[in-house]
Amino acid sequence: MQVLVRDNNVDQALRVLKKKMQREGIFREMKARRSYEKPSERRNREEAEAVRRARKAARKQAVREGLIAAPKKKEMVRRPSSGAPARPSENTPT
Fold first, then answer.
1. Terminus of the chain with fewer CB atoms < 10 Å: N or C?
2. Taking CA 17 as the corner, what is the angle to CA 16 and CA 22, rounded to the nearest 5 degrees?
């Protein structure tokens, strides 16, 4: 895995590396390898993961076909950046 460091910005390169590692499942694999997993436990876990994936795919397909309603999206709360002063909202008295 390779990440380019631009303008000596190591923090940004680390964030990109962590995101790539997360996407590849490296952290999950490292956690799993901390202790021994019996073959029967591994088989059960993999079967459960396959069932979860199949249910998720079926749920997405049903939403696409309009058979069930799509889940409601969570509304993101916007926070002011750390350097900028907070703007007063319309509802707060001044």
1. C
2. 100
**CA distance from start to end of the chain:** 53
The CA R_g of the chain, rounded to the nearest whole Å, is 22
Token digits of residue 42: 């591994």
Spatial CA neighbour of 5 closest among 13, 19, 16: 13
pLDDT for 49-68, tens place per residue? 999 999 999 999 999 998 88
d(CA 84, CA 51): 47
DSSP state of 61: H
Tell me the pTM. 0.52
